[in-house]
Amino acid sequence: MIRPALTALAVGIGLTILLFVIFLWLGPLFFLDGRRPFQINFTLAGLAGLVSGIVLARWRMMVAIGGLRGAALVAIPGMLVMAAVGSHFQVFFPALDPALDKVFGSWMLWFYGFMLIGGGVACPARRKQKDDNDKTEQGGWQ
Q: What is the spatial distance between Cα 53 and Cα 65, in angstroms, rounded to a whole number?
C-alpha cells in the first residue's frame, strides 16, 4: 500500500514540474489576458485535468489505492507548490503579466479540481462496488 502511494506522490511531483516548465517556457505564447483564446485555455485546463484524473483512476498502480485517492495524492504536491508559486507569481514567471497571478491560481484549481472529479468518476473500485450492490439488491428480498 505504501509503494502505490509513493508512486502517486512521485507522479504528482513530476506533473508539477511539467506544469511549471510549460508556464515558464510557453506561458508567454498562450497565457494572455483579454483575448478569446484565453477562455478556451480555461476550458482546456479543465478538460486536461478531467482526462488526467480518468487516466490516473484506470492506471493499474492507482487502482490498488483507489482512483480518487490516487488522483488526490497526485494533486497534493501540485496544489501545494502552485499555491506558493501563485503568491510569488512575478518572481517565478517574470515574462508574464503580474496581474495574471489570480488567473494562474484559478487555472490550477480548475486543472486539479477536474482531476479529482475524473479520478472519482472513473474509479473502477467504486464501479465494482456499485455493481455488487446492484446484484445484492436483485437477489435480496422479493
A: 14
Buried b (16+ CB within 10 A) or exposed e, 74-87: bbbbbbebbeebbe
Full pLDDT tens readout for the chain, 142 residues: 678 889 889 999 999 999 999 989 988 887 776 656 667 778 888 999 999 988 888 877 777 787 788 889 999 999 999 999 999 999 999 988 888 888 888 889 999 999 999 988 876 655 555 555 555 555 544 4
Q: Which residue has the cell 446484484?
A: 135
CA separation for the pair 66, 131 (Å, rounded): 16
Estimate to the nearest angstrom the gap between the alpha carbon of 97 and the chain centroid: 24
CA neighbours within 13 Å on the CB side: how many for 8? 30
Residue 91: how many other CB atoms lie within 10 Å: 9
Per DSSP, the three-state class of 122 is: coil
Render the burial of 112-142: b for 16+ CB within 10 Å, e for the rest.
Answer: bbbbbbbbbebbeebeeeeeeeeeeeeeeee
DSSP 65: T
